[in-house]
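Progress against Task 2.4 (sequence-to-structure conversion) is shown through the following example record, which the project officer requested during the mid-term review.
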Amino acid sequence: MLLEGKTAVIYGGGGAIGGAVARTFAREGASVFLAGRTLATVDRVAEEIAAAGGAAKTAEVDALDEKAVEEHANAVAVTSGGIDVTLNAIGVPHDQGTPFLELSFEDYAHPIAAYTRSNFLTAKAAARHMVKKRLGVILTISTPGSRFSGQGFLGYGVTCAAVEAFSRILAGELGPSGIRVVCLRPDAIPQALATSHSGDVFRGPAERAGTTVEAMLADRARTGTLLGRFPTLAEVAECAAFVASDRAGATTGAIANLTCGSLVDV
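Structure tokens generated for the chain above:
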């Protein structure tokens, strides 16, 4: 198993991506600690993991609350003897679809402030324990909006670019302590629409285009990706498990391209 004996903390563990990664991590042998703002959602994921024979514990944690994040990380480290892997998979509702001239500064800045704050706080809380063993992996999540240009996603595009820059530079900060940092960059995941904030986020652009979210994404996948489709939750989770494992021990400061070719790295 890829993650046997590892302790993994997943923030946003009750969401679509966080839950999928948690199930895969547990299947691969990790002891999984799920943190989320809504205990009922992380509890459901933990129950599924337990039913499949895995190990998972849950906690109600606001990943924007520095004290709460630090207290939770400390408790996990005491219980498990350390922290080996973290993933920040929180979702922050935000505006998409509003053109620049109609966009308020507050709506523009909201996702930038929230996502960068959360990634900073969760990474720092975990790294404090990882440096003691000189070993650990910090995973972040971005989207191809970090590299695209277009209309209606200015705030979130800047957010994703910031998360990627944070991940690359953090890898340099923590590399001497044996800690790796990898950013996962999936494109839209249609499977996640029903169980994440993405359905609401995409509704604005779809309505402005006079179509449905499902039709909008299907058209973009067909015409805008090399594979003619978007990634699945399982594909994102499997990649996360691999890069978190010792088999990817030489990988850090990297952006894992999971866009099915909507974005081609050069």
